[in-house]
């Protein structure tokens, strides 16, 4: 009995300390100023694997173009992907669009309110469902993302695990999250846990001296984590083929056009997105090298050599991977480009350079959802 009382006393103190800290220190973010489930849903999907600073502006742009779920449901997929361009992990945008269409068609356009119902939608797993239901509707559903997982493991001194042991650890973490959540303020509680993991209990060198829950923490920075899998390195080459359009513009001269290729729809990675044609590695003549770009996707660091190619050399020197189109440079900015294509065209002065979204900085580590 004494043990149970001690435990409930520890939990009550921990809830008080964390919620007080969150009330005073939370970052002022646009999706924290609304209770609109649609706006919260968009933010939760964008924040997966993407830095908060990069999401703020993109969230505003997305809601300006698609202010309601109905407007998103009516949109063409290519337009949704174009607006997502640069955020990476395009499957998120596709699933978001599909879920909006499903809700418009089968739920009278109203996003379901409970975590259980939300989980039935494409792209919404336990994490996103709990986040929307708790933040927008006050449901007492605990969120477990990568940040929360790390905080709980350190709090309870549970070692990170791999293989079979990882499943058992995951169940312990979910049970702990459900036990700790403050059902009087579930949305704030979930956001406080994620905020603590993102800003204080960070992956390397946690800031324990300023942590609001250090009194309840069993490790206080003395916690071992699994080493990160090493990044792989790969070299690839793309062709930048530019010409003047044969059609004269207002000034009499043709507009500048760039050759783009659409990735086939059956690919599992970035299907339907537009990229620069890939070069046959052996065929890259050194004098044509325009730039070298570094680009990271998932666990791979790419070194990308970009070469200027004449229109006549395209067929012989590139690998034909999909449908090709000459695109006026102004139009390319509005297309669903891969992050790499956007980066290269930006560096070549053909597009505005966007700040990196999915690389560097403090990202919310995401646990994959269906
Ligand atoms: Fe994380 Fe340190 Fe706080 Fe423990 S005391 S929860 S390790 S920041």
CATH superfamily of the largest domain: Hypothetical protein, domain 2
Count helical runs: 14
CATH top level of the largest domain? Mainly Alpha
Query: How much helicity do the residues have?
Result: 40-55%
CATH topology of the largest domain: Endonuclease III, domain 1
Overall spatial form: globular
Low-confidence regions: 358-363
Largest sheet: 4 strands, antiparallel
C-alpha-based Rg, rounded: 24 Å
Number of strands: 9
Q: What is the H/E string?
A: HHHHHHHHHHHEEEEEEEHEEHH
Distance between the first and last residues' Cα: 42 Å
Q: In the CATH hierarchy, what is the architecture of the largest domain at level 2?
A: Orthogonal Bundle
Question: How would you describe the overall organization of this protein?
Answer:
The protein is α+β, with helices and mostly antiparallel strands. The protein has two domains: 215 residues, Endonuclease III, domain 1; 116 residues, Nucleoside Triphosphate Pyrophosphohydrolase, CATH 3.90.79. Helices cover 42% and strands 15% of the residues. It contains 14 helices and nine strands. The strands form three sheets. Strands 2, 3, 4 and 9 form a four-stranded antiparallel sheet that branches. Strands 1-7-6 form a three-stranded mixed sheet, covered by helices on one side. Strands 5-8 form a two-stranded antiparallel sheet. Helix 9 packs across helix 11. The longest helix is centred in the N-terminal third of the chain and has 24 residues. The protein starts with a helix and ends in a 23-residue tail after the last helix. 34% of the residues are buried. It binds iron/sulfur cluster. Iron/sulfur cluster binds next to helix 9.
